[in-house]
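Lesson 9: reading folded outputs for more than one chain in a single document. The general rule is that every protein is listed as its sequence immediately followed by its structure tokens, and records are never interleaved. Here is the first one.
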Amino acid sequence: MSRMPGIANPPSRLLAQALVVGGALLMVAPLYFMFVFATHSRGAIFASPPPLLPGARTLDNLRILLQALPFWRNVGWSLYVACASALLTLLLCSMAGYAFAMFRFRLRRALFLLVLGTLLVPQFMNMIPTFMVMDALDWINQPRALYVPGAASAFGIVFMRQYISSSVPRDVIEAARLDGCGEFTIYLRIVVPLIGPALGTLGLISFIASWNNFLMPLIVLRSPGMYTVPLALRSLQSPTDTQWGALMVGSAIATLPLLAMYVLYSRRLVDGLTAGAVK
């Protein structure tokens, strides 16, 4: 007797579910242990076996962290840089994406291919040129050096161009031009309301990337009071005397905003990434 189409073999389905659950546990395990270790002393963390349940040293570890670093100031700088990066990226990338999607101009295809080509360049290859430019502008140890250079990202421009091409009707743009609307008015009053999901997705991606960025702060920041959270936590590490409990507390605090954003906006993120592809 032949099987009905679309009905999966139960053993295969159970195996697939087991693999998914096992992969999820492997992904969550480091995060779980980070929060557990944040509640234990350094000696307990490196005990054999290591602790599997939360302890009672959270406040002690937090006190050590605040004595070693101006941590709340570091968090404030990270928030400022991440928000500024997200807002500037949304402005520049959406405008560039609108231009590539709706304008016809000379060398348009060549310029877009050039933007695509920059995606192939590894980030570490930009370290020396970026430092030289920031030094020439006297932006060393300035937060604007963290969000201005990468604001018009190639990924953001390509993403917005593809979304606008598939989601904004060209007839509406042409009708607005015939009615005498300027391009900036069309962009603000027609394009921006139609690309809300894409703006939310790109803003979230930009915020997370800036919040987790370690390489650029390492290059341009000099004062511990100006450090972002990843660089500040790295400064806690020492070859001989690393306060691992304090480091885990700082890492847990730095992770909480990202976890909150994931819980609140994960569905919107997926919708924004896929909406342009199905319209």
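And here is the second record, again sequence then tokens.
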Amino acid sequence: MMILRKDSDNGYTPKREGFRMPAEWERQDAIWLSWPHNTEWWGEEISRMDAIYGQWAKMFCDDQGVRILVPSKEVEQRARQVLESVGVLEQKVKFYPISTGEIFIRDYGPTFVVRDATGEKAMVCWDFNAWGGKYESSLNDAYVPYLMNEYLHLPLFCPGIVMEGGSIDVNGRGCVLTTESVLLNKNRNPELGKSELEKYLCDYLNVEKVLWLNQGLEGDDTDGHIDDIARFVNARTILCAYEEDTTDVNYAALHENYERLVTMRDVGGGLFDVVRMPMAKVVAEEHLHTGNSRKPASYLNFYIGNKMVAVPIFGGEHDERALEIIGRYFPDRRVAGIDCSKMVLDGGTLHCASQQEPACERKF
């Protein structure tokens, strides 16, 4: 069995080595996906998931690579057939024979960091414990970054703490957003306090300020990931999930988060422009895993590519409004919706199920 590494206490961190985590809107080399394959979970919906991934890959393949993890030749062949049917050229896609339990590569995959001065790239490999030990079938996903690096051969930074990619969002200018309900949860790093976790974030993402919100959405089995409730769209603007219905189960938590955000300041001391985003509502008989009838359906779980922004939509009254708001902040990209009303039954959508690999060009 592979042994997970941990950086020794010798000052070896991305920050001290000059690496940083870029904002998602900075130029990317590729989008990483893990192709859906668990028919025990998805059943007849697996064909719908195939269609979503085909549509998604088609959106991004013209201007960046599409990298896909597959557990078997059979799944790879099915993926190739789907991609061919939507017109994705074979040379635009690269497959990696890596098995995963879940599709949510954002959380168990690596965080890519870059060193602008030299044009180098590296990976931060956080520990992953299946969202606080909730799903035994996903525990082996902790090895995915190391298996990826058998092909990529990049320098590795290994903090030795539990962290999921969906729990952080950076603006590329020294700030990271996160939530107390995840990072301070005793099911992750019970031995670490707030100030200690802030130091890890600052050292391994190369940021200066940690911006804390309280909690996330009802039905979110991650305990409240940031990428469902608040996202940077530029260095000074934050889109914030907000529930207008005071009787809704999400109203109190989202109102508190908004009140926190409007008082927060960036590294230069300026207030952020905080923009409210409408909430979608998806209710079904049961979550694929938890049985919770309310799903964490959020328009903020979008993915920003080089020329496209893929936004989850849910067939609800706020779909068009959400697309219009997001489109204001990406005038140089095409903003398009993907129906995720079934995908969200697994607890997440587009951002959760993807990871960006940034480009790195040497700056003289």
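What the second record shows: DSSP finds eleven helices and 16 strands in the chain.
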